[in-house]
Amino acid sequence: xxxxxxxxxxxxxxxxxxxxxxxxxxxxxxxxxxxxxxxxxxxxxxxxxxxxxxxxxxxxxxxxxxxxxxxxxxxxxxxxxxxxxxxxxxxxxxxxxxxxxxxxxxxxxxxxxxxxxxxxxxxxxxxxxxxxxxxxxxxxxxxxxxxxxxxxxxxxxxxxxxxxxxxxxxxxxxxxxxxxxxxxxxxxxxxxxxxxxxxxxxxxxxxxxxxxxxxxxxxxxxxxxxxxxxxxxxxxxxxxxxxxxxxxxxxxxxxxxxxxxxxxxxxxxxxxxxxxxxxxxxxxxxxxxxxxxxxxxxxxxxxxxxxxxxxxxxxxxxxxxxxxxxxxxxxxxxxxxxxxxxxxxxxxxxxxxxxxxxxxxxxxxxxxxxxxxxxxxxxxxxxxxxxxxxxxxxxxxxxxxxxxxxxxxxxx
Length: 412
Ligand code: C6P
Description:
The chain has helices at residues 6-11, 38-50, 61-81, 95-110, 129-138, 155-161, 184-193, 213-216, 241-246, 281-297, 299-318, 347-356, 369-374, 391-409; strands at 19-20, 23-24, 26-27, 89-92, 116-120, 141-145, 166-172, 197-201, 220-224, 235-239, 257-260, 265-267, 323-325, 337-342, 359-360, 362-364, 380-384. It is α/β, with parallel strands linked by helices. It has two domains: 6-30 and 298-409, Aspartate Aminotransferase, domain 1, CATH 3.90.1150; 41-295, Type I PLP-dependent aspartate aminotransferase-like (Major domain) (Aspartate Aminotransferase, domain 2). The chain has a seven-stranded mixed sheet, with helices on both faces. A four-stranded antiparallel sheet has the order 13-14-17-16, covered by helices on one side. Helix 2 runs antiparallel to helix 10 (281-297) and helix 11 runs parallel beside helix 14. Residues 31-32, 94-96, 124, 126-127, 172, 176, 201, 203-204, 224, 362, 366-367 line the site of ligand C6P. Ligand C6P binds at residues 31-32, 94-96, 124, 126-127, 172, 176, 201, 203-204, 224, 362, 366-367.
């Protein structure tokens, strides 16, 4: 487990040194937002102190410097996810924004009455609502791929759901509740066989293991920076060039045009066509710094660390009687997103009890209400892991859960 140099990594995240409620902070909510290493903060600070200016506008020295840094960041993202060109990388405000962009542009232009859109029951609302509402507007049909009892995609059902009427398959790479890693390469191939476009929500995947959009064959791939050590407010939409070229802009304004007259306008080339207004320049630079940080560690080691720690969590939690873990039981089929419930204790009460011990977890429906319904619960507690977590964190989580269980049993 120490192949990662865990001690150095923890030191890269000064926030972890603090105490919460008098106890050492244990951060187990990285699926919501990861922490940010000092190197990323430093890169942003240096940009603001030496090169801050708007991009693609001024001819002055600072403007040119800022533009170079912004476009270098785009190239870094393209290389990181295996895109064939930086023109296929659009900066957005986050994964939600990226998914809405595809629905508002590609969806509005291409989905017609009678078409089918296929999603899975494990989608985050951000990859469900844009399609649900688009389907309503267009009189198209929304179809759901169900899951097995242990939280894996029902692949047989999936083959029947994708048909020649399917125009789009929108699927999460990794579930933000179950941690399931979906076989997206196979699903994308199935979608393509039927002539459908495949969009992947990579919010819980990028930064946890290597992702290569070209190898996967994804038509669109969306993710957020703040879940992979970058600042909030920056995200990415990858799209195949031939699709992006045909799509209309989603928002209108500065820097996304070729020419404007009183009567009309023509649009800039991609990616500028989709980046109306002043973009999140320091966010993009921060995202590039986060990628440098991940590359300096090696994504394969990140994956190994998280898989090993996930196995440890699953083993420890399975020993607590009355505790139900959702999602695949094998650590290699999932990431370090572990949802559970303790019989008779509301997830919010449990999360509050853990917080009193300095342990930060998320409780609720995790913006995945249809999935909650399918799991026959309203909410769960969720612990989610990152490179800065270790076995000691998990031992503390386990003992705190045991104590909470005893405490709440006195009231029953
Ligand atoms: N999930 C969670 O705690 P944004 O909020 O735009 O950065 O990401 C949206 C999103 C899309 N897809 C998946 C699979 C996600 O997990 C998320 C964000 C967080 O689970 C906040 S709700």
